[in-house]
Amino acid sequence: MAVNLATKYSTQVDEVIRRGLLSTAGTNNDVEFGNASTVKVYSLDTAPLGDYDPTAGMSRYGTPTELEDTVQEMKMTQQKAFTFTIDKTYESDSPEGVRNAGKALQRQIDQVIIPAIDTYRFSVLADKAGTKIYRELTSENAYETFVEANTAITDEEFPVEGRVAFCSNDFIRLLKQDSGFTKATALAQDRVIFKGMVGDCDGVAIIAVPKRRLPEDTAFIITHPMCAPAPVKLQEYKIHRDPPGIAGTLVEGLLYHDIFVFDQKKKAVAVCFDGEEPEENNG
């Protein structure tokens, strides 16, 4: 009979994943999916500002119109899973600890699960960004380009405090070489707020992201956590000892997650690609 250790181990693993994800600093948990796979988010429009007319009788404030609303549908799509076995005979013929199921699961989480979540989240943020810049980046224009993208967000009147920038290490290298960049690139340990944070630029926290986790040619993504809910509905990891048909250990994992960008807050996300804009975008 299989012994299922899912409950105890999942709790431990959940904390490991939260600490290991780089994208967490740019997301939120504001949308509750509960027992549904789809959630509709309603947003009310605003009314135009006009002139007050004391001679207009019952219409001194203007002609009232009903506020319209917009609906954004968010549907969970990312159902990911994995499984592997560790045969008892192979385990007995290997050095002690080499084929340990717990260590193997931890390695799976560190090397596969965490990078996969980050990669997906960054791809959605880049795709939905309200500002997209394409530019051949150099050590002479890196800082200027970053400020341009950040200013585009500020001009849309989104909060400055709390913004984060997910940057490739290549872009960070160019930024450090840019004479226009005067901010400190290495912060004291007690000022580091987010995992992977290496400094700040134009008041935005800089988080270094491995190139393979970012979309192709992405130099940086600036965002604010209020823009993107990133629900994780299920996160389950199981270790079965000697299940029927297997002499050894069966490990299974299920991850049900997604990320969305609020339609009303897309303009608070900016992305810069290192290179020329693809021709299909110009058509």
User: Largest beta sheet, briefly?
Assistant: 6 strands, mixed
Amount of helix: 25-40%
Structural class by secondary-structure content: alpha+beta
- H-E string: HEEEHHEHEHEEEEEEH
Instruction: Estimate the strand proportion.
Output: 25-35%
CA radius of gyration: 24 Å
Gross morphology: flat
What does this protein structure show overall?
- The protein is flat, with a radius of gyration of 24 Å.
- The protein has 283 residues and is α+β, with helices and mostly antiparallel strands.
- It is built from 6 helices and 11 strands.
- The model is unreliable at 1-9 and 183-190 (pLDDT under 50).
- The chain has one domain.
- It has helices at 6-20, 88-92, 101-128, 142-155, 169-177, 279-282; strands at 38-44, 69-75, 78-87, 131-135, 164-168, 197-201, 204-209, 218-223, 232-241, 248-257, 270-274.
- Helix content is 27%, strand content 27%.
- β6 and β7 (204-209) form a beta hairpin.
- Strands 4-11-8-5-7-6 form a 6-stranded mixed beta sheet, with helices on both faces. Strands 3-10-9 form a 3-stranded antiparallel beta sheet. Strands 1-2 form a two-stranded antiparallel sheet.
- The N and C termini lie far apart (61 Å).
Topology:
Elements: H1 6-20, E1 38-44, E2 69-75, E3 78-87, H2 88-92, H3 101-128, E4 131-135, H4 142-155, E5 164-168, H5 169-177, E6 197-201, E7 204-209, E8 218-223, E9 232-241, E10 248-257, E11 270-274, H6 279-282
